[in-house]
Amino acid sequence: MEFSGKLLPWDATDRTSQIFRLSSDLKHNFSLPPPPSMAGAGDSYHQGNIRMTIEDPDLWRSFHEIGTEMIITKPGRRMFPHCKISLSGLVPYAKYILLVDMVPEDGLRYKWNKDKWEVAGKAEPQPPYRTYLHPDSPAPGSHWMKQPVSFLKLKLTNNALDQHGHIILHSMHRYHPRFHIVQADDLYSVRWSVFQTFTFPETTFTAVTAYQNTKITKLKIDHNPFAKGFRDEGTNSKRRANRSLADPERVAKKMNVSKDSEHGSPRDIQQSACEGLDDEHVGRKESEVKGERYSPWGGASDRDNSHALRAESPLGSDPRDMYSSEQLVPGQNTYQPYRFHEYGKSPSPSSSAGSSSGCGSTGRSSFESRVPDVATVPDHDTSSKPSAPEFGLPPCPPHPSAGHQDYTGVLNMAIAQAKPGMLGHHPLYAPYSTEQSLGQWSGAASAQYPPPPPPHHHLPSEYSTQAVHHGYHHGNVGDWSQYPLFSYSCW
DNA sequence: TCCTCTCTCACATTTGAAAAGA
DNA sequence: ATCTTTTCAAATGTGAGAGAGG
Length: 491
Known about the structure:
This protein is α+β, with helices and mostly antiparallel strands and 491 residues long. The protein has helices at residues 57-66, 141-146, 187-190, 214-223, 237-243, 247-263, 275-281, 286-289, 306-312, 320-324, 349-353, 434-441; strands spanning 20-21, 51-54, 69-71, 77-78, 84-88, 95-104, 108-113, 116-122, 130-133, 139-140, 149-150, 155-157, 167-168, 173-183, 194-199, 205-208, 326-329, 339-340, 366-369, 412-413, 479-484.
């Protein structure tokens, strides 16, 4: 079954900021069909029929089945596989901005123990929240649609003081990239626009400073051209020798990689915690992969023991919980929007600890405020990035269990390469100065939107989910959500 | 002090874009 | 103007070692 990412109409005047997110499974929480009045209604600017697909889905799945790891370094490291998407359904002549940010999977920290990932405690406080702006932004829909859009240059770093606009992550934490499409002529318009967000479960990864799972290393070497020198057939005899011990395994792995992605994996590996994701996101191949996945996630074998399982695997036995119900609400707080992540039934430390967050123990939705703001601050590194403005998306509020978070609101975007003029003469930057940021945020938000929900409290009804979930399976087609932004001004 | 875990660094190799030359 | 070659910055995983914490 295929269900393209048809946007549900959104009334721009609707301050309740309902977010509609297509889920991939009707049997989940929000199974309401779209109100007839909304289905296919009118304004193409706001509704469109946007569809996003991820490129190289098989490659992503190959990694995902093992447990994708992404290296993060101080100077910044590219992702591999890198994010590359295809878009359709955009208004050809309308301009869009493409953004990517990294969303914590949960409020947990992990460790690699022998051959599997285990929970190692609560997540560390969230580092400065950044969003990567595609350098082509803004560009007309026709531009985005004519060929796949690559985020090759996106870099991940563990340097909280990074000044290059790289996305800052914590090592040993899990994230997934989230793609945003905003119809806007420039960044100034962004805040008036509707964000449409897409996620691809198979892009979930663990940020690491050094690879933990040797199978991931091998997969990277086998597929990343820059790592060609480390391949068995490569010229580096020294490294070949070092790796020779693992050769039998490598051979077996190589033989299995392609197969595994579609036909399951070695049986010595416990079932993948990602199984559920595959079930619904890997096209209609679920029957082929279910229960056979190789997984680095410990405890996954005990599928029925959801508690035990989820304690170790944030994806849980039914990862759909995580992806199928995302609601985004506008941040009402001028500088402290909150994001609530709740992973449904998962009794993970994070969710349990987050009871005070107001997400409710029964709800599956993860609520997020998406209030991208751009801090206008002095550029303190003009030599290296004279026009390296960054703006942060809405400070991703903390996971309930993540402890104190950095609300600096640094919405850094690596827009150094963005088209000149898109930001006009305003120096956008992403400082880590709370004072500055907060100062910027002190806009008159409340004038436009209802009062903000109290932090760590139940969302008021007007923010409650009215998500509409459809069967939305097309392998690498992203889930999407739509939400208005910018309840306050910051420019 | 020892151990474990995580992170950093220099290294050899490869890629790919830009520059130089034919 | 076009094609080929050269140069060089950037990207890659490796493995040793440092550093923090228990």
